[in-house]
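Human: I'm a chemist; would you kindly supply sequence and structure tokens for a protein?

Assistant:
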Amino acid sequence: MQGPVYTHSRLSVFSTSSQSSVDLAGTRPSSSLGSRPTSTVGRPISVGTGTTLASSGSNVVTKRTNTIYDRNLNKTRLAEVSLGAWSFMFSEVVQYTQKRVAGIGDLERRLNTLGYRVGSRILESTVWRTESTTKAPKRETRFLPALMWIHTVLWRQLFGKSADAIEKSVENDDEYMVIDNDPPITRNISIPKEMSQLSCSAFTAGIVEAVLDGLCFPARVTAHSVPTEQHPLRTTILIKLDRSVLEREEALKQGS
């Protein structure tokens, strides 16, 4: 069974910032590192990940590269990363997962699980950025404002743009839809005919589900391809709320 095919473009998501280094002069290596070479003055001595010792005469200079945990989250929130690099990475994720599943449904469930793990971390970093830059941070307690936050703030954090629309099901009160006419995550994916029912946006659905759970709006979120003549990649993220959310919304409505 032939898997999805990928091409390249650009996408605004998370990225890395330039790394800096700190010099600690006058530090000698411990005895466990071995003796310093006598005939290779100035030659770097590898110590471990992110750390090197450079010998210069009788002094040894230690250079340590900052890790990703040392970076300021606010300085990297608007940076860009190549969509080509993202496409290669996501291609490997899909192919790795595809080899370990029995069908399309199982593949989408696993992509959803992977997206859920990413979503919980994105929510944490986004909330931290909001609280650190806002004097009076606000936590949404009603579902519709939280859904609007996902439609705008979260989508811009992920894809550099807002989603195209939000709709409510006319048949079921517990179903809402976030619509993206051109989702960057699937823009460079070509689905074979025998896998036409597959939606790799299940990864995005997992992210949304994790965010809703973190905001105390438990729901089941799935992705569905709804192509149109004008938007062949149009995707609907279907949110089916837990009954407890509807009961709480009703109680808050009556209380107000």
